[in-house]
């Protein structure tokens, strides 16, 4: 089965094409094998940098303009021009396209406009299913991907599967390679119960993952704990802003922190380790951010600057405070559910200090740890295509007409039967 993935939940416009198949395993069930045909990500981070964060209406406009050119590139690179192709005739194409006019033209003129002249869409590609992010994320940008999926689904007569972005971050970590080499790989096998720690710009969650049914490739999810305020990535970004670093701030904080560690001059600064004594698996990072705010105010000189030594020391202490908090909750969650596999996902899992520390914990517990390759730790459509391909639920609404963007979509809600 060939799946097209579409991701527009935040500031990355992404499309991917994968092929999947199920192979019988020794325990009578099925494993999933996947072939990455191609995966394209167009980041808008530089555009949003000027605003110090994602500017939703700008993101919506950019997704709307970028999707068609990105799809053209994807299909040109992946469809065999010599294989016979069905071409939609002009009248049919115009008829289907125009059936969307009333609802889409007013809602998103940029997206509508971008379809004009996209004649390549008349060639029906080898795609069996379209997987699109329905949430969580920014609703205006989620709608762009959903509208795009609907038009493609109608033109090519392909069913649409809604995907939870966070599930994407979980299953993305099951790929051994994200390289578009086209070679088959078996997804890393999960011993249940599994624990996922999802750390991104919008979320910080600990998730208990169970197999849905013995012979099923799908998973069910229960959120064990989550942030009560800021997400980890958000905290990284806000602290970066206080240190006058560009957006997204995570990689910059991490680089400063590494410099501090290499200098071996410990900073006298001490930040709180939030929620260690809360007795549950929830997180809170806003207090930590406020502590950083006070520290930066105190260290700001008359000309508004801060010394490099202070900035490095603060970045390092902040990263340590985050790491120790996450480690503490991660251990508690492993103990609580008796986790037999650890999965880490989300943009912040690119962080080297965190990767090292989580790997040590898994070693200590003698359980496997699955981290996303650093290339797909951030938002991408490969993980969305994969999540859509694994979910073999029969959706009644195959045309996606009832599909709605859900900015606060919770993991697991659609998985309860
Ligand atoms: O998953 P993601 O790409 O987007 C969301 O779904 O939110 O995560 C983006 C977040 C940003 O907050 C960014 O600063 C953070 O991931 N991030 C990092 C690193 N690389 C990206 N945080 C810490 N260390 C990094 N190396
Ligand atoms: Zn994400």
Explain the overall architecture.
Helices cover 41% and strands 19% of the residues. With 417 residues, the chain is α/β, with parallel strands linked by helices. It has a 6-stranded mixed sheet, with helices on both faces. It has a 5-stranded mixed sheet with strand order 11-10-9-12-13, with helices on both faces. The longest helix is centred in the last third of the chain and has 30 residues, at 308-337. The structure holds 5'-O-[(R)-(carboxyoxy)(hydroxy)phosphoryl]adenosine and zinc ion (ZN). 5'-O-[(R)-(carboxyoxy)(hydroxy)phosphoryl]adenosine binds at residues 10, 200-202, 233, 236-237, 248-251, 254, 346-348, 350-351, 378-379.
**In CATH terms, what is the fold-level topology of the largest domain?**
Nucleotidyltransferase, domain 5
The residue fraction in helices comes out at 40-55%
**Total DSSP helices:** 13
Distance between the termini: 24 Å
Strand order of the biggest β-sheet? 7-6-1-2-3-8
CATH architecture of the largest domain: 2-Layer Sandwich
Tell me about the biggest sheet?
Answer: 6 strands, mixed
CATH class of the largest domain: Alpha Beta
Number of strands: 13
Bound small molecules, deduplicated:
5'-O-[(R)-(carboxyoxy)(hydroxy)phosphoryl]adenosine, zinc ion
Strand content: 15-25%
Number of discrete domains: 2
Q: Tell me the radius of gyration.
A: 22 Å
User: Segments where pLDDT lies below 50 for 5+ residues?
Assistant: none
The CATH superfamily title of the largest domain: ATPase, nucleotide binding domain
Structural class of the secondary structure composition? alpha/beta
